[in-house]
Design goal:
A hairpin with an 8-residue loop joins strand 2 and strand 3. The strands form 2 sheets. Strands 1-2-3-5-4 form a 5-stranded antiparallel β-sheet. It is mainly α. GO terms for molecular function: ATP binding; protein serine/threonine kinase activity.
Length: about 700
Amino acid sequence: MPPERSARTAATALLESITDPGGDQWIHDLEAHRAAVIVRGAALVLGSILDHVNDHELAGRTPGFIESCERAGQRAAARPGDSAQLAAGLLFFISVNVELLRRRFDPPSPAEQRASDDTCRRLIARPQTRRAIHALYAPEGFTRAARPGERPESAIWRHLDVDSMAYFKAGTTSLILTVREQGETGPPAWVLKCVLFPWGNMSAIANATAAYASVYGRAPDPIVRPRASTTRWVLMPRQEGDTLRERIDRCRAAGELDRAGDRIAFARTVAAEIIAALRVVTDARYQHLDLSPSNIILTGTGAVKLIDLGRNHLYSRQVGIAEHDDSVYIAPEVKNRGDSPTSDVYSLGIIVLEILSGGPPRDGRVPDAIYEMSPVLGRAMDDLIEERPAHRLLLMETGTDPVYARLGAFLAEAFSLAEAEPSASPSAAGRAYARFAPASRELLTQVRKWRQARGSPIRHSGYLLFFALLASAVWWFVFTRTAVPQLADVIKEFPRLPKAPTAAAIIAFAQGLVSAKFYQTILARLTARGIPGALPLATEIAMRSMPLLALPTTIVAVGWKPHLWAWSVAAGALLVALTNLLCLLLARRLFASGRGHDLSTVPDPGVPLPRGFEQWWWTMLLYAAILTIIAYGLQVRWLHDETAIVLGLMVINLGIHYISKCALAGPAIRGGLARAFVIGEKVTALTRTPRRRG
């Protein structure tokens, strides 16, 4: 019988063992073939394994394909003879192969993954499975005895200790085993990456795997240098430590990443180590192109080792499984079979965002929670994950230093400022105080930011600090004039208690409280400076006027004409409505401009700003109109119960404006506006003279 026909007959027998568990003819058919024919038959089955699994499920056969395959292997293992034992090992391996494929298409939960790993570990612990793997993955032309002129891979394969093979972990497209060479003792020193079927039959994957050792065998130290590779496997030294994926999962399960400050610190450390490794790799004229948490090893010293470099063809448009699992980390141009100097920068941004937010952004945009936590960190991340390479690193300073040296400084500054955020405080009481206090600890935060940003490329730090200081000074001035009993009140009518505060003082206190909270929580970090145009200028002027909002009521109504308090508050509400409207119009214009320049991080047109900010301007305008009516009514004496009016306004100011809008919704609003201003910065950078990025 011709060899090819014999292999097809063996493949048919193996399939019958899975689909017809009650019969025994398949065992006799396999026993009639030589070992090499049975191995080729198994390769034929594995080459179309997805079709066979699909046919099994469509036929409604029970049990499932994996369990049926394992049962067939057990029946073969119970029979004597080398052919039956080889068939058993091949069936066990087919079970492992299908189990790992299933994880690619149906990502398991942590518990399901542990159960899956246990299944693979148990099956590969069988001696039949290990010998089947050694036969199935043998290099082309491999023989048991050494031959003159054979390829080095054959000699290496021959000297592997088959009995030491053990399941290590699952890769994206591979089964990863630990193994020793014959004569070695102690823990296995090598890792064998076996490409799963049917991926190994795809020419793009097979060619890349075969060339891996020659391409990366002399790569610089952060890259784990392979010892040998063929179209179906790569052998490399085993590295001590965890993959970044394992470290993230373990830290998250232990609650070590629950607090924002812990996430920021961990992300900063990881980003710095990855950048240091990528700088060395880039200087040696390499790129990773498949940078993901699973392909980064963190050693015991915290240093980074890089594995599995090169384009992952499983996630390229060529293969057609581009939007699956770890593909979220891969730069769009790499998926489209290209690359750019910033391809790994994109992957780094996605990895950092996963650490900060709990998962990679599937829509390719910085999550709202990052901008809410730290606008400056959101700005930095936004600059890394643009889909088009030419749109990345627009906000990073240019210079003659290598791109990763500048990127390291850029992110270090962003992380330093993020660590100064009140939301990063380890104290729950401190975070709550910053959330609800009038000044929101903003002045202290701005001072720290200013100190850290001196001499750095981060702009506007001193400018924003001045207005944060002004807002705090105005608040304390209002507080001392309206909430603290004056000495004259005590001495003038001693021994009577101080006089009850007037309506003007009460409302001035409420206005000062809300205006301080509004500015410090929402506007203190935002600036439209550097964005050209009349609308950005008008918005900037309006935002910077907000610290002075409560002064007229305090100076005029409290210190001079108390009956003017309602007119003063109405004018202040009108100015706030105008500021909100200008911010909204500018945000919409900047988002539209970003879409026009094809920036991928711009929210979709139908996505509103967070927490209903679109309604803030007209609700405040309505509030100003009501205050105007109240002011006129008090002036012409249509209204008489001033105390009831003031009480009602206090409820509105404290309940709605202070707590609901500023304290609870304010950080999200600030984040949404900050995103818009970042888009404006990018568009401005794009419309300038093109800059060198790398």
